[in-house]
Amino acid sequence: MGYDQAVMSTRRATISDVAREAGVSPSTASVVFSGKTPVSEATRRRVLEAASALGYTGPDPRAASLRTGRSGIVGVVFEEHLGTAFLDPVKTLMMDGLADAVAPLGAGLLLLRDQGPVFGGPSLTTAPIDAAVLIGCSGFLRESLDIVRSRGIPVVVIEGDAGEGVPRIGLDNREAQRQAASHLRGLGHTDVAVVTLPIDAARPRGPVGPGADITVDVTRERLAGALDVFPDARVHSAAGSFIDEGLAAGRALFADPQARPTAVIAQSDLLAAGVIRAAEEAGMRVPEDVSVTGFDGIVVDGLAPRVLTTLEQPATDKGRAAGHAVAAMIEGRDAASLSFTCVFREGDTTGPAPR
Amino acid sequence: MGYDQAVMSTRRATISDVAREAGVSPSTASVVFSGKTPVSEATRRRVLEAASALGYTGPDPRAASLRTGRSGIVGVVFEEHLGTAFLDPVKTLMMDGLADAVAPLGAGLLLLRDQGPVFGGPSLTTAPIDAAVLIGCSGFLRESLDIVRSRGIPVVVIEGDAGEGVPRIGLDNREAQRQAASHLRGLGHTDVAVVTLPIDAARPRGPVGPGADITVDVTRERLAGALDVFPDARVHSAAGSFIDEGLAAGRALFADPQARPTAVIAQSDLLAAGVIRAAEEAGMRVPEDVSVTGFDGIVVDGLAPRVLTTLEQPATDKGRAAGHAVAAMIEGRDAASLSFTCVFREGDTTGPAPR
DNA sequence: TTGTACGCGTTATCAA
DNA sequence: TTGATAACGCGTACAA
Predict the structure, then answer these.
(1) Alpha helix segments (H runs only) across A230-330
(2) CB of B44 closer than 8 Å to CB of B99
(3) How many CB atoms lie within 10 A of CB A27?
(4) Which residues, in sequence order, are CB contacts of B209 under 8 Å at separation 6+?
(5) Residue A61 is nearest to which of B96, B119, B126, comparing CB atoms?
(6) What is the pLDDT of residues A242-276, one digit of tens each?
(7) Which of chain A's residues 29-58 bind strand C, using a 7 Å CB cutoff?
(8) Which residues of B touch A100 (CB under 8 A)?
């Protein structure tokens, strides 16, 4: 007993300690806690009593997961600061769908930022995850991705290309954006500018040349759709999907009164809202002097009573689909890629090109 | 070699395999990956080559965390569906602050729903976390909490009482709500109704009697503040902080034209927005026929051009404070409880009581 | 700078 | 229904 106390005071009780105290074998004690095998009521109670006497509160998650190979954790990897998971309305809806679909699986969601394996914390590669959902997939991720996949961890990517064998939950970004662009062309616009989402991890802000290296898939695809219709469009990148970024980009585009575009294709609704504000600042009317389109179909505060011309995307469904896909893969089934479709919605922020 | 291949095909290479292949000891190989001890460039390269030859991609997170006792994961526990983490604007802001404060720590955030240890998935008790942040703390949690604390895992609670020794990040809910109520009394209101947030995990919707058992701390505190001023107020609980819930509650309150309150204290801005909508539906003018107050100070879509009379709370700061607190505790420092203060903001949704 | 030896806490398997 | 055994894969004193 003296020994036991000494031991107890220095280290936490383990399941072996409990077993010893209860006079059973460790495996029996283990079974009492896991419930995976029938145990006689008598031993069961003895073990539980021993446990509470020793202050043992159940198996150590780390050890259990080493042994079983499962942690019950699904990693969700973002390319940007984790805050975007919460502040970007589209991601927010996606996460809701994802949480929904993953719940029956009993899994928790681990929010990860891919910062490369250099930084201290858990990256995709160092976290004990059972599966991973990537939100976009840029260069950085590619590398970690191979590692994860080589470990046999199921991976699904939302809006991005993670290579062969990784199911994709996609959106018809290019086609959808082309649709909005065509709408503008149909209205007679020829001098068009594009305000893009971040083009890469460094998130520079400013003009984008024709040869620019765009590593963010969504940005690239939507831009391609716009350029399909307006190959000569001026392109300006924002540092994030925020109203303020749209405002900054709009100011830049409208700075020179002699060289103002008659239409602006923004790659998100928030950016569009910012551009509209910039237009008003510059004394332009929307849509009489300049037309603006968005992307996402979310509710943007402060835009009312305007209705944005935009592309509605099924954000929640995308998340849910990703959840179902990882759930399937965890259970050993196959998961297929899936592409969702945007719906063009004409509002009152686009009109005929000014003469 | 034949043996090696046989082994490789059946199980994943471990660091020992790599060491053997490279002709060094396991510990040396380990050091190559962890970088905790200088290694000669030659051995280093040999190990790396062996690793890539064997397809070894670095230490297994599960084993590593068993050994080191750290996982780099901070658990965030919600009482409700995880979706609320993303759909409730206040929680959203909190999470942003939390992510922010935890980032330098290099930790990932694990979103957990506390559904009691029965359910299968990782709960607070079965997840490999280094620390936990509780969002609220009701009965369910209490139990898991003891377990976690007995394991020596630092815990912080936002808006809740988790018992002695658990630092709290709080809000002056009661005082703030009392302030809004006093404002109404000052305007001459006497017949007042309260629309509350969920009162417990079952989230019933409907009238709340005087003796009701309210397990959600925030709800209880804010209600107490309202009752401090209007002890006889009718109380109606909503099933969540949504506009639609406020709408439903409002309809119930305004159903009988003979017994309509002249003011409604809603426990969140979203609820308030719903109540206002219900009032309009019922042909009542705000604030001429009925005054409405909210709580939170967030931007509610569709409310413009109205400005809600409400209590602004520093949601982001609360999250950040919680993050700093767990960071401190993980590093062995102490963390103190902290209480934030709401600011009363008078809008145009409250006015003199109708005669 | 490298190697030896051991323990981290569990659980699966199989035999009794 | 219970127990003995053997991993699970790694990190780290400590000695060489």
Answers:
(1) 243-254, 269-281, 315-330
(2) no
(3) 11
(4) none
(5) B126
(6) 999 999 999 999 999 999 999 999 999 999 999 99
(7) 30, 33-34, 36, 56, 58
(8) 81-83
* A315/A318 Cα distance (integer angstroms): 5
pTM greater than 0.85: yes
Phi, psi of A170 (to 5 degrees): -115, 180
Gap between the Cα atoms of A58 and B125, Å rounded = 8
* Contact call for residues B87 and B52 (beta carbons, < 8 A): no
Phi, psi of A115, deg, nearest 5: -115, 20
Residue of chain B with shortest Cα separation from A92: B86
- Closest Cβ–Cβ partner in B57, B108, B120 for A150: B57
Q: Is B37 within 7 A of strand D by CB distance?
A: no
The mean of the pLDDT values for chain A is 89
Residues A141-147, mean pLDDT to the nearest whole number: 81
Q: Could you check: is the Cβ of residue A70 within 7 Å of any atom of nucleic acid strand C? A: no
Cα B4 from chain centroid? Answer: 50
Q: What would the mean pLDDT of B9-37 be, rounded to a whole number?
A: 85
pLDDT confidence of A150, banded at 50, 70, 90? confident
Whole-angstrom CA distances from B93 to A225, B303, B317, B318 are 34, 20, 9, 9
* Phi and psi at residue A148, to the nearest 5°: -60, -45
Nearest CA in chain B to A11: B151
Q: In what order do the strands lie in the sheet with B192-196?
A: B206-207, B234-237, B192-196, B263-266, B291-293
User: Which residues in chain A have Cβ-Cβ distances shorter than 8 Å to B122?
Assistant: 61, 71-73, 106-108
